[in-house]
Amino acid sequence: MDKFTKRTAGFVIQTFEKNHKEQFVCTHQEFVAGDQCDYFNDQYALILRGGVPEYKYQPYTMTLQE
Description:
Blueprint: E1 4-18, E2 24-41, E3 46-47
Antiparallel strand pairs: 1-2, 2-3
């Protein structure tokens, strides 16, 4: 296998505030990831727990738009 996909269950929590144009804009967001992850091969077939390759952890770095 040369490639796999990790799907993590979770939530996005966003806070919106009115700006000077009276438009609601996102001022804060949190990404809450659970422990439930599913892994798929490049054919998008589920990889069972024992078959998930070791990988380097990738943090969920998300940013707000300006």
